[in-house]
Design goal:
- The protein has 119 residues and is of the alpha+beta class.
- The chain contains one helix and two strands; from the N terminus they run αββ.
Length: 119
């Protein structure tokens, strides 16, 4: 007789566990919207802070307009890349030595056009 009562209590405990687990899952999924909003706000603030800092540091040296948004489809860019590699192999008194001198020069120009001037 006691075994039957124990089994019935176990069934109600299982129901309580399922109820608590479902409440936790629903609350976490509902808070996900707020987590995403908070993360997007942090990214937006960081982007705005970086652009403001760049504008302040390059004041008078930069000609053009910096945008807070990034439109990759309206970007015109050119790059000239020059790479030099010099390699020297030597054997001195039984010791092998290899010297490698390399250098890379990159000149890049990028211009972001407003959407009305695309293409």
């Amino acid at each position: 007789m006691l075994k039957i009562i124990r089994n019935n209590k176990a069934q109600t405990t299982l129901g309580e566990y399922l109820l608590v687990i479902s409440i936790v899952v629903v609350s976490i999924s509902a808070m996900g919207v707020y987590f995403r909003r908070a993360l997007q706000a942090r990214v937006h603030d960081a982007r705005k802070a970086v652009i403001t800092e760049v504008m302040n540091r390059t004041e008078g040296n930069f000609v053009g307009d910096l945008r807070y948004e990034y439109e990759p489809y309206y970007t015109r860019s050119e790059a000239i890349i020059d790479a030099n590699v010099n390699q020297t192999d030597m054997v001195l008194e039984g010791i092998y030595r290899k010297d490698i001198n390399d250098g890379t020069t990159i000149q890049a120009v990028s211009e972001t056009a407003p959407p009305r001037e695309a293409d």
